[in-house]
Specification:
Strand order of the largest sheet: 1-2-3-4-6-5
CATH architecture: Alpha-Beta Complex
Largest sheet: 6 strands, antiparallel
Number of helices: 4
Shape: globular
CATH class: Alpha Beta
Helix content: 25-40%
Number of domains: 1
Order of helices and strands: HEEEEHEEHH
Strand content: 25-35%
């Protein structure tokens, strides 16, 4: 999956938008102000995603392409590398998982606002 396709997929998620980048070399995607993905422009094979440690372990065992979780603001994030021929379905499913992990952490008020966007 190229960077533009990944960008379009991230933006296709409900209430998703591009947030302020970490400098000029990242695209950052948020849902209602909460980051769910970051795509470094200098390495199209890398993506940062929200992922609980148990899911990261399963991904590492299956794909050997996920680095151990690192903590960013007390939240679990993972660096995921893909080879050039990575299955687009895998990348989409990882973005979906990250997006869903962020939604799970919404407060009741945020959930109500999110649900009202239909």
């Amino acid at each position: 999956m190229d960077i533009e396709t990944a960008r379009e997929y991230c933006l296709s998620k409900k209430a998703a938008d591009e947030g302020l980048p970490f400098g000029d070399d990242f695209l950052v995607f948020k849902v209602m102000g909460k980051m769910f993905a970051a795509l470094p422009l200098d390495d199209p094979r890398l993506i940062f995603l929200k992922c609980e440690p148990e899911h990261a372990i399963a991904l590492r065992e299956r794909y050997a392409a996920v680095e151990p979780a690192w903590h960013f603001n007390k939240k679990h994030w993972n660096q995921v590398w893909f080879d050039r021929d990575a299955d687009d379905r895998l990348i989409r499913s990882l973005i979906d998982h990250s997006y869903d992990e962020v939604l799970k952490k919404f407060t009741r008020k945020m959930r109500n606002e999110y649900d009202a966007l239909d």
